[in-house]
Amino acid sequence: WVPAVVTIILSFTYWNGVRIKDIQWAGIQNYKNIFVNNPLFYQALKNNAIWLAFFVLIATPLGIMLAYQIDRGIKGHAFYESIYYLPVVLSLAVIGIIWNFMLRPDGFINGILGKDITNPISFFGDDRWNLYVILVMASWRHIGYIMLLYLAGLKAVDPALREAAALDGATEWETFKKIILPTMRPVNIIVLVITIIESLRAFDIVYIIYGTSGAQVPILGTLVFQNISGEGQSMKGAAYATLLFLLSIGPIIAYLRTTFKEDVK
Hints:
By secondary structure, this protein is mainly α. The chain has helices at 2-10, 29-35, 39-71, 77-85, 92-103, 108-112, 130-155, 159-167, 172-183, 185-200, 204-210, 220-229, 236-264, and strands at residues 13-14, 24-25. Helix 3 (39-71) packs antiparallel against helix 10 (185-200), helix 5 (92-103) packs parallel to helix 11 and helix 7 runs antiparallel to helix 10 (185-200).
C-alpha cells in the first residue's frame, strides 16, 4: 500500500523524481492535462476496454471450457493439461519475445507461408488489427491461467452432486449451469477479479513488440511508463497510474460488495 499511496500523492505534484525538496504542489493540473485535449488517453481507455471485453467474452470462457473437458478425464487429459498450462509459467515479456519471433516480417510464420522479406505479411504493422494480434498473444497465457484456476475448483466439487443430477435426468449442460457453476462461486469471483486485473495492467507484450512509444497500440500501462520516464517533471505518469489503480479496484470492490450482501441474505 505504501507505493500506491505515495503515487497518489505525487500525482498532485510537479517533481523531477530526484530531490524531495524540489516537489511542488500542482493540485489537479496533471489530471486536467489528461482529461482535457488528450485524445490518446481516451484511445488507451478504449483499447483497455476492448482488452477486457475480449478476455471476458472469449479468453476466459475458453479457459473454463478447457478446464471442464480436462476434468472429465478425456483421453490424453494429462498431456493437454501440461500443454495448456505451459504458457502460464512464462512471463508476458517472454511470451512477447516468442510471438515476435513467430510473427515479425522475417519470422517463422512468414517463412512457413513462403513470404520473403520484401513481401511479408505485416502482423504488427496494420493499425486495424494490431490490437487483436496482441490480444491473441496475451490470451495464450490467460487461457491457461484460467484453466488452472477452474480445474482446481472443479476437483473440489462433490462427485455425488453430479451423480444425483445424472439420476434425475439432467443433461451435461444443465448439470454444469445449475449445479457446478453455482458451487464454483468462490472460484468464479477469483476468475473475474483476475480477468479485470490482467486486462487493465497489460503492458509487457505491447512494450516488447512496439518499444517505448507503443503508439500502434496505446494502452493505459504504456501511458504510465511514457509519462514517468519521459515527463517526470509533471508527475503525469503518477496521475495515469492512479487512474489505472482506481479503474482496477473499482469494479472489483463493487462486485465483492454485491456478492457479500447476497451471502448475508
